């Protein structure tokens, strides 16, 4: 299923009934309520084979998703053009198929969605509003992953929807422009433009302008942190909190987690190099503080929650960024989830650790909004 126009919000309502997962890629898939019972989470999911060599500690449910992803036999992303890569299956597709195969009941979404174009149509937003209550709600600006190159709002629908439902917040999910069609720092500038729009239009959205947070996954985690830095530098309202989920935080691919999980799935070392080449104008830009957040001035940033996955080349990025933030005087809470891979966060209907991570992120945000 190839990527259709993100501006079709009617399609979102249909897709949202089908799936509770979100990960990197570009296929049209979506999400559901992440507050399902544990018995539903683990229903019938047993790996077909032994744990992979690159992930001996992998949890059974996580392994089932990876096995399904591998069964599609797509060509390695790093051997493809960006356009070709966006046609590959994603972990979201794997979760969708597993839900169907296991006859797992998907709860009806507790949010309404609407699309919005800003910045002369350059940036598309998907706005999630809780069906319960009348507001004003807290507001979360959310940035999806995909290495600045692949993925879209549909692929990461589950994360945005889960945050809206569990926090009781309006979520503005941002379709920033992708590389290589739009090189660095386009995604970063788009991310901040969307945040500025959310701040200025909070009241119109039925949100509380004093309660705005940013959340991002992977490349989106990098963007969320940059939004906080840019807000500080431009002297506009800072987010009250930021949640960074396995963020890209530096350019050294020789960290211990890069070495240990060099061949991991769904993200490996070669893919990260490919993403970097697609987005940057020159490799020298990899040292820019916008990419290597560990080199940035992090003083005065909002309290931060960092979520990492054990079986992930980017695990150490999150650890290093947490250390740098603490050294800069920023309040930081971190939690690592054992036995799961990059992109696990949106898989709450299948993977118990994803359900737990979503609840943790929601708790952190609710505390910040108080």
Automatic annotation (TrEMBL):
It comes from the Bacteria. This is Acetyl esterase/lipase. Residues 140-345 form the Alpha/beta hydrolase fold-3 domain. Residues 1-21 form the signal peptide. It comes from Pedobacter zeae. SUPFAM superfamilies: alpha/beta-Hydrolases. Pfam families: Abhydrolase_3 (PF07859). The keyword Hydrolase applies. The keyword Nucleus does not apply. Keywords: Hydrolase, Signal. InterPro entries: AB_hydrolase_3, AB_hydrolase_fold, GDXG_lipolytic_enzyme.
